[in-house]
Amino acid sequence: MAKDHSAFPNEDSYDETYGSGDLSTILPKSDFPDAERDPRRIYAAVRDELMLDGNSRQNLATFCQTWEEPEIHQLMDDCIDKNMVDKDEYPQTAEIEARCVRMLADLWNAPDPGNGVGCSTTGSSEAAMLGGLAMKRRWEARRRAEGKPIDKPNLITGPVQICWHKFTRYWDIEHREIPMEDGRLLMTPEEVLARCDENTIGVVPTLGVTFTGEYEPVKAVSDALDDLQARTGLDVPIHVDGASGGFLAPFCAPDLEWDFRLPRVRSINTSGHKFGLAPLGVGWVLWREEQDLPEEMVFWVNYLGGNMRDIALNFSRPGGQIVCQYYNFLRLGRNGYRKIHGACYRSAAFLADEIGKMGPFEIVYDGNPEGGIPAVSWKMKDGAEPGFSLFDLADRLRVRGWQVPAYTLPANCEHQAIQRILVRNGVSFDLCSLLVDHMKDALAHFEAHPIQEPLSKHEASGFHH
Ligand SMILES: *Cc1c(COP(=O)(O)O)cnc(C)c1O
């Protein structure tokens, strides 16, 4: 029977999705489209394309949150119109940001937490720029007062996250990065002292080094710098990159002295969207006291008839992440954070134990709460020739959707390949046990099908953070 077209005047206006005209063609990829299209169908097409990114929950490379409570999804939606820069138009969002700064000042043992000095940022990278710039300005002010030149500032770090490379390059600062050596993958007080001089604007230890997950020894470095000052008069401040550790150590290693308990620690950055458990797009930078934040970095803005600091590289910026950070502080408290991160540390310890027992691997960092973040890193045992590389293992685990990064270390350990698993909220103990099974499957696969030409770092996809 012939189709009665008159009963379906516009067939394409029905709900059906994948047979529609809109989706029966290749969608534009470069030319700016002319036509309007149906929102529901285009939503389906865009959402489908996102599938090809892989499953973020199985991405064990990222430090960032990939699971959030339903309430956070709801709050993000509620806050889609909040602009952090408009402190006068959204004064309550600004107030919430200020509360978070005070709570962090309390968490990090600032001398006067009720007057916490700091701000939210888009992440630790922007926070590092602001913390670094404050160090540079303080050093410049001191040098000017002494009538000395300010043309050769330098910054001392261990093997750092790329944001510090950006900071030193963008602001014309000599970067004295302490290279790794076999058997020493972190900064030490001796290596720091060997690089200090009158042009050193500061030292940046990292609480949770990107490459292995370990904490650098903030207190030992601080003590050594106290000693340096006593001997030479040089007063070199510390900024702690606590991107991960800033939200871990206070809960899981409370006796570790790394924060404002050490008078030499003048500023700290952290990523709210890492172990702060907020959704992507928030970091924090705090200064110890008001005098540590140079006044010329501050733009005072009106808010609720009062004044509030605006310290930021961005202008417009979404507010939802900050509201969610506040939600997390209220919702979890110290006990909730301790519980969640404690579960991650237990999973990391389990993984370290299992991976250590597999045979070919040597654990570099075992994910203990005093030593670093809930992560495990390992390398091939010296002399082991198991017939595959860590890059092959990463490649094989992708078959089951796992992203377990393998990469080579930075200078002077470029020859050393390493692999790392980051355990964060939502990487459950049970999922870890399945990953262990899949690693064993992979090893059995390589035994049955030895690799003739193991993958090198150049052929492997290079993802680490
Ligand atoms: C992730 C990370 C950064 C960068 O932080 P973002 O929040 O991604 O901008 C800086 N330093 C360390 C140690 C990190 O782990």
Automatic annotation (TrEMBL):
The modification N6-(pyridoxal phosphate)lysine is found at K274. It catalyses: L-glutamate + H(+) = 4-aminobutanoate + CO2. Coiled coil: none annotated. One of its GO terms (cellular component) is cytosol. Signal peptide: none annotated. The keyword Isomerase does not apply. Its cofactor is pyridoxal 5'-phosphate. Its EC number is 4.1.1.15. GO terms for molecular function: glutamate decarboxylase activity; pyridoxal phosphate binding. Keywords: Decarboxylase, Lyase, Pyridoxal phosphate. One of its GO terms (biological process) is L-glutamate catabolic process. It is an enzyme of class 4 (lyase). Pfam families: Pyridoxal_deC. Residues 1-34 are annotated as: Disordered. NCBIfam families: Glu-decarb-GAD (TIGR01788). Belongs to the group II decarboxylase family. This is Glutamate decarboxylase. It comes from Amorphus orientalis. The lineage of its organism: Bacteria, Pseudomonadati, Pseudomonadota, Alphaproteobacteria, Hyphomicrobiales.
